[in-house]
Design a protein that fits this description.
single chain, elongated, 55-stranded parallel beta sheet, mainly beta, 3% helix, 742 residues, two-stranded antiparallel ribbon
């Protein structure tokens, strides 16, 4: 903060001069003060009575009546000075309180106070509809001239502080405070505001909403090195149409209150206005949003927002709210910026409607205070956002979210990101339990797309897709993941298992996706009834150190599809709450799961590398399936470390439900292939060793006969199950011909 601003604030807060001097001694003033012959004053005020200010007309409220406006015989009334001043005159104001309610029209005039700490223009005795100073109010829009103000405090205007309706305003080194409705208001005005403090606008009975600065129609303004603080309503509003505002080194602090929620933001942008901000800081906001943009364009560099609360619980509490519709063609990004830091806020950024965003070097931490959401970046209802260089730590809900309604397409593309330690927020259930989710795509009658690249997500669920029957009307969210790592996913609430990747309807295409150190399955995929399938396609992916399953595919009416290519699943062990562990588990809910593994490896699992239960279509081409270490497991899957386990699996369309082609099967502690009331086709498949069982086919519980057990005790089948086809070329174990097996 500039030293001059700090001095002004201290003076306005009641920091008065030291004790009057004795007749024979000059007092020792404090740091930043001087003795002006009468008292200790801020150095910026200079020596009494005029300081360093030079002008053509002089005003001193302590002067005798009948002055002529010279330095030696100043006028007593500021209103008289304004009336007498000619073109380009400079009116100099001595210390004291001058009466406001001034109206200045269509001319060049300068009001220069000795300093803002000592010179006040007070509008409290003027009319209720009067500002402290009004410029071109009688001739709005077409009024001209330049009004320059410096070294002043404008206070007490029941309408406002400065009310400009045209021409040019230059405001420097001043304090605008405690005025009703607004402190500064501009329409059809060019304005330059430098080294100014704007504070505490006062609500009135007729106008409970307040504004620190209001920029209306066709304004062009620059605000530099300025502090706005203690605003119950909106600190800066850029409203109506076609205004351009530039903010440089501006601080907005202390906006809103728990009891007084007038206005809705520290910075409010709408219509067709343009705002550019460099080194803007917004802090201690107790409003709906820190920045609200419902139109226009906003560009920034080095934007800091910290300590933001939403006490009224709007549906999507965020620090920055951007929503536009039908922007002008070629208008470019709605919001764009480099260097954004959010800390201790209700949420991050919501971008909605036809808005578009391009952001870089973004950091967010401690999101979700005072509400149940805490989203980092949320793109909704057809908006688009591109974000690079992102770090989010401690989001209460979804760090990234893409959602769409009404047939629109929403796109959130993020590259070079790090997302750490989100905590439960979204995904609440009726019993109060929640799941933490970092990145979500959800749709309702549209398409939501999430694109992640060069991203590390740790400490939470990585990607959770919701679609299909979860929303109305049903639709499919999509995600494209490239060079993404999801790691260190903790146990969910109430001891439920989390997954690194969760698809409940939706489509994910991934390349070089790594999911590791997960308290539950690395990936869970299911379709949604009445909606599109859940589909995961993963190339060159690595799933390791997971619990219960590397990939859990749940067949559903909506359809479930999983395709792994050139991928690896390794290190799957039983979870604390579930004592099974599978590399790939394909199970049945109310539909078919289609799973394809191509040139992929599953190893170091506790039980089966591949387990299939119920109605499924599973194809494995090439690659390796290694059996597990074994151990008795209760429940539906009673296996002992097999490479492949299939139960209650009928033949699929045009062939069997399980097809292994060109696969190397490891033995593990059980059979290499165990079929329980299931059928399979094996071609060009090999085993590592001849120890233990290589191939078993068991009957279901209601079968009364095991055929072929006497002839070939190592190869059995159930009478109600279609023939098992085994074609192995070459035949490393010397198995008998197929027609001799059964």
């Amino acid at each position: 903060m500039p030293a001059s601003l700090l001095i002004l604030l201290l003076a306005c807060a009641g920091g008065g001069p030291s004790s009057p001097p004795s007749d024979d001694a000059t007092p020792e003033c404090g740091e930043g003060e001087l003795y002006d012959g009468e008292a200790c004053v801020p150095e910026a005020c200079g020596m009494a009575p005029w300081g360093d200010v030079e002008g053509t007309v002089y005003v001193d409220p302590a002067a005798a009546e009948g002055g002529d406006g010279t330095r030696s015989f100043p006028l007593r009334s500021l209103a008289d000075a304004v009336d007498r001043a000619g073109a380009a005159d400079v009116i100099v104001l001595a210390a004291g309180t001058h009466e406001g309610g001034l109206e200045i029209e269509d001319r060049d005039l300068t009001l220069a106070g000795r300093c803002a700490a000592l010179v006040t223009i007070d509008g409290s005795t003027a009319a209720e509809d009067a500002a402290v100073i009004a410029f071109n109010k009688a001739n709005p829009e077409v009024g001209g001239g330049t009004l320059s103000l410096s070294g002043l405090t404008l206070r007490g205007g029941r309408l406002g502080g400065l009310d400009a309706w045209g021409g040019t305003v230059v405001l420097r080194d001043s304090v605008i405070t405690e005025n009703g409705w607004f402190n500064l208001s501009f329409d059809w005005t060019d304005a330059l505001i430098e080294d100014v403090t704007v504070a505490r606008p006062l609500p009135t009975t007729d106008q409970p909403g307040t504004w620190g600065m209001w920029f209306g129609r066709l304004c062009t303004a620059t605000v530099r090195r300025t502090l706005l603080h203690e605003h119950p309503g909106t600190a800066i509003a850029v409203s109506y149409t076609d205004s351009t505002l530039v903010l440089e080194d501006v601080v907005i602090a202390g906006v809103g209150s728990e009891d007084d929620m007038h206005g809705n933001a520290a910075l409010d942008i709408d219509a067709t206005n343009t705002v550019t901000a460099t080194r803007l800081t917004i802090r201690d906001v107790n409003q709906w949003f820190a920045i609200s943009q419902t139109g226009g364009t906003f560009a920034f560099e080095d934007l800091v927002i910290e300590h933001h609360r939403d006490t009224v619980q709007v549906p999507y509490p965020v620090a920055i709210y951007v929503e536009t519709f039908d922007p002008a063609p070629g208008s470019g990004d709605t919001i764009a910026g480099k260097g954004l830091h959010l800390s201790d806020t209700a949420g991050g950024i919501l971008i909605s409607g036809t808005a578009s965003a391009r952001l870089s070097d973004v950091s967010m931490e401690d999101l979700g205070h005072g509400n149940e959401l805490g989203v980092g970046i949320f793109v909704a209802a057809g908006a688009e956002a591109q974000v690079s260089g992102l770090r989010i730590e401690g989001a209460k809900g979804a760090a990234l979210a893409s959602q769409s309604v009404g047939g629109a397409t929403s796109v959130l593309a993020v590259t070079d990101a790090e997302i750490v330690d989100t905590t439960p927020g979204l995904g609440s259930t009726s019993d109060g339990a929640t799941d933490a989710w970092v990145a979500m795509g959800a749709t309702a009658g549209g398409t939501a797309r999430l694109e992640l690249s060069d991203t590390v997500i740790s400490g939470s669920v990585g990607v959770w897709m919701l679609g299909g029957g979860w929303v109305d009307p049903p639709a499919t969210p999509t995600a494209l993941l490239t060079d993404v790592t999801i790691q260190d996913v903790p146990m969910g609430m109430t001891s439920r298992m989390n997954s690194g990747l969760v698809l409940q309807g939706g489509e994910v295409d991934a390349e070089r996706l790594t999911i590791e150190r997960v308290a539950g399955p690395a990936a869970t995929v299911r379709g949604v009834s009445e909606g599109e399938p859940g589909r995961l396609s993963c190339e060159a992916c690595l799933f390791q150190d997971a619990a219960f399953a590397g990939v859990l595919a749940i067949g559903s009416a909506g359809g479930t599809q999983v395709q792994l290519t050139d991928s690896t699943i390794a290190g799957v062990t039983a979870a604390d709450s579930v004592d099974q562990a599978w590399g790939v588990l394909v199970t049945h809910e109310d539909g078919v799961a289609e799973v394809s593994l191509e040139d992929s490896t599953v190893s170091d699992v506790q039980h089966a590398a591949l387990a299939v239960v119920g109605d499924a279509d599973v194809q494995v081409r090439g690659g390796t399936l290694d059996g597990g270490t074994g151990g008795t497991v209760g429940g539906v899957l009673d296996v002992h470390g097999n490479a492949v386990y299939a139960r209650d699996l009928p033949a699929g369309d045009g062939g069997t439900g399980l097809w292994l082609d060109g696969v190397r099967l490891g033995q593990g502690a059980g059979a290499s292939v165990l079929l329980h009331g299931a059928s399979a086709t094996l071609t060009d498949t090999s085993w590592d060793s001849a120890e233990g069982e290589l191939l078993q086919q068991h009957c279901s519980a209601d079968s009364s006969e095991v055929a072929g057990a006497e002839e070939s005790p190592r190869y059995t089948r159930c009478p109600e199950t279609e023939q098992l086809v085994v074609e192995i070329e070459p035949n490393p174990m010397g198995l008998p011909p197929v027609d001799q097996l059964f």
